[in-house]
Amino acid sequence: MEEFLNRNSKLIIFSLLGLILIGLGVLSYKIDIFSSGDTVEVLNSTNAGPESPQDEQGNIVVEISGAVEKPGVYKLKNGSRIDDLLISAGGISSDADRLWVEKNINRAAKLIDGQKLYIYHLGEVSAKNTGSIKLDQEVLGVSNQNLSNLVNINTASQSELEKLVGIGPVYAQKIVEGRIYSNTEELVKRQIIPQKTFQKIQNEISVY
User: Fold this and answer.
1) Mind listing the pLDDT tens digit for each residue in 88-132?
2) Where are the alpha helices (DSSP H) in the chain?
3) Inter-helix orientation angle 124-131/133-140, to 10°
4) Which end of the chain is more exposed for a tag (fewer CB within 10 A), N or C?
5) In whole angstroms, what is the distance from residue 71 CA to residue 117 CA?
6) What pTM was estimated for this model as a whole?
């Protein structure tokens, strides 16, 4: 046996070295596979993170002005209510027309992207009705007589709204709950009433 080892010592050494190299190669190959798998997982995790476009679509941008503590433009979650916007703006200010707010602002109404909410100051509504009639005529393009006949969708009662063509109790209630409106076209944009119904009443309504 000793004689065999002496004769073949070089062959045995080379064989051992070969086995070691083969083992190292196999081990390196397995490490590469595992490392590659980890890299793929990390990339997938990053793409699904909070900065993805899908998350960005969950927000809306709205504006509030007038008699509030912090007027401005706010980014809120989709599905937010008017009450959420009022809270973000610090609430209504001390000089707000609180009676008008209670009658015309539905705090539970949902906001839509791009919507603007205006809160009147105390005395501003009466001043607008008596001292700004000329401005309203210019904006609406109607005479004084026609203006007085228009139904103000921001202040009209449900029964007054139901007198409009195509407006029944359901649509009238939705109009009241959706207040306040910056323009009459919001009735369609906010899906309060259908386009066909709006075309029937567009010349009979105003937001002033």
Assistant:
1) 999 999 998 888 888 888 888 888 888 888 898 988 876 655 444
2) 2-7, 9-47, 53-56, 82-88, 98-104, 124-131, 133-140, 144-149, 158-161, 169-177, 186-189, 195-201
3) 70
4) N
5) 10
6) 0.46
